[in-house]
Amino acid sequence: MKAYHLGLIGAAIALFVIFEMLRRRRLREKYAITWVVLAVFIVLIAAFPGILTWAADLTGVQVPANLLFFGASLLLLAMNVQLSSEVSRLEDKVRTLAEELGLQRLRIEQIEGSARRTGPPDGP
């Protein structure tokens, strides 16, 4: 099996998994776009390996695979930073919501405590 066949099969599997995760609501659209673009890029490189050779010549990299690995490393680093930022933002939201929930529970307990002390209202 030639390397580009393997690339095409890998990209097809990746696209299938992405769309299946979207369908099952396990992946949000804003993240899926990145993965779909990446899968299309893999298809282009697999179908037309000359693109990678041309890019390597253009950038002065002697081995095209090294350019591919470098680009993939940069992409993974960028995605990791973006996802870390998203996790940090969500942790702040969860902490804020937990604090608000604690305050609401305290208010409810105070209201229930004052209602018990005053007793039921007198009837007519």
Describe this structure in words.
The protein has 124 residues and is an all-alpha fold. The protein is 85% helix and 0% strand. The protein is elongated, with a radius of gyration of 27 Å.
Topology:
Blueprint (H helix, E strand, L loop, with lengths): L2 H21 L5 H19 L2 H10 L4 H55 L6
Helix pairs in contact: 1-2, 3-4
Biggest β-sheet strands, sense, barrel: none
Structural class: mainly alpha
- Secondary-structure element order, as H and E? HHHH
Unreliable stretches, pLDDT < 50, 5 or more residues?
none
For the secondary structure, the number of strands is 0
What distance separates the N and C termini?
92 Å
List keywords for this structure.
elongated; single chain; 124 residues; mainly alpha; 0% strand
